[in-house]
């Protein structure tokens, strides 16, 4: 609910909606919520009995199909998650090994799935038009108080949404820096980040509390950067994936601290990317059964898909 409500194209969220659009629920949508159309991507949505989840909407002439986002799916992302945890002994259980095999179909060609050096390739295809569609298209006012917050924002989740909502309240314009894949990998280890820089950037841009992002922001917030973007305040949350400044490491926020514009704010949720990954591994059996059906439908979709107009 937190995630979907934060998407800037969403006007209202209906809780506890059924997976299958039954005739009763469909009529409720039309009468109580004044909905004109029920929409889904061009990938199939089949119920366990083999029937179409949107059959009633199609029969009523109130169904519209839009193009699916190419190159990214929940099945693919689960596979990426498992690659990043397979070297950790605490998670290396028979269940985890079995789950890894179920979701390992997207690893780098020519590398064995058991090889720790393997990596997963993102097939997401970003375009300049897509970035423009996600952008607000507006800069800050000359007198705006610009707030800056940076990070990996990997597997964009409810914890990210709520800290960004808090950050937005500190100014008029929220600028978010998205670290490069190389920066994230250097701090968190192989197979991180789970999502590529462009995937993470669009995820953050879709959040209604964010005004602008820096794609591939440097990890160090320099004085020059502060002047370039006219930053009034640099914020950081209390919940983070890795430790703070280690011995011998440079403090990335030293310049902001020296200028007296750095502030740590409380993170509303104790939620991290690792928390999400642990949930997936813990719920092994459910995801294993889900993937047996989903992986097959994914293959069928890509084998038979046709061009769909629209964005």
UniProtKB/TrEMBL annotation:
UniProt superkingdom: Eukaryota
Protein name: Uncharacterized protein
């Amino acid at each position: 609910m937190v995630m979907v409500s934060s998407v800037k194209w969403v006007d209202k969220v209906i809780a506890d909606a059924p997976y299958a659009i039954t005739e009763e629920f469909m009529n409720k949508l039309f009468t109580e919520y004044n909905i004109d159309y029920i929409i889904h991507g061009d990938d199939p949505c089949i119920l366990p009995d083999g029937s179409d989840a949107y059959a009633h909407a199609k029969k009523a002439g109130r169904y519209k199909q839009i193009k699916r986002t190419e190159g990214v799916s929940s099945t693919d992302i689960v596979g990426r998650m498992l690659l990043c945890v397979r070297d950790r002994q605490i998670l290396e259980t028979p269940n985890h090994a079995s789950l890894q095999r179920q979701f390992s179909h997207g690893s780098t060609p020519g590398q064995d799935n058991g090889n720790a050096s393997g990596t997963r390739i993102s097939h997401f295809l970003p375009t300049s038009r897509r970035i423009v569609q996600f952008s607000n298209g507006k800069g800050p006012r000359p007198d705006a108080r610009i707030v800056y917050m940076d990070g990996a924002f990997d597997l964009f989740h409810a914890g990210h949404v709520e800290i960004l909502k808090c950050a937005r309240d500190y100014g008029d314009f929220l600028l978010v820096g998205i670290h490069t894949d190389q920066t994230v990998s250097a701090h968190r280890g192989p197979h991180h980040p789970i999502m590529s820089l462009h995937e993470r950037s669009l995820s953050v841009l879709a959040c209604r509390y964010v005004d602008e992002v820096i794609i591939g922001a440097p990890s160090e917030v320099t004085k020059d950067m502060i002047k370039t973007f006219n930053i009034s305040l640099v914020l950081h949350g209390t919940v983070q994936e890795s430790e703070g400044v280690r011995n011998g490491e440079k403090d990335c926020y030293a310049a902001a601290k020296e200028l007296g514009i750095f502030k740590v704010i409380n993170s509303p949720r104790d939620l991290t990317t690792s928390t999400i990954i642990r949930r997936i591994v813990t719920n092994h059996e459910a995801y294993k059964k889900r993937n047996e059906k989903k992986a097959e439908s994914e293959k069928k979709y890509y084998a038979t898909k046709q061009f769909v107009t629209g964005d």
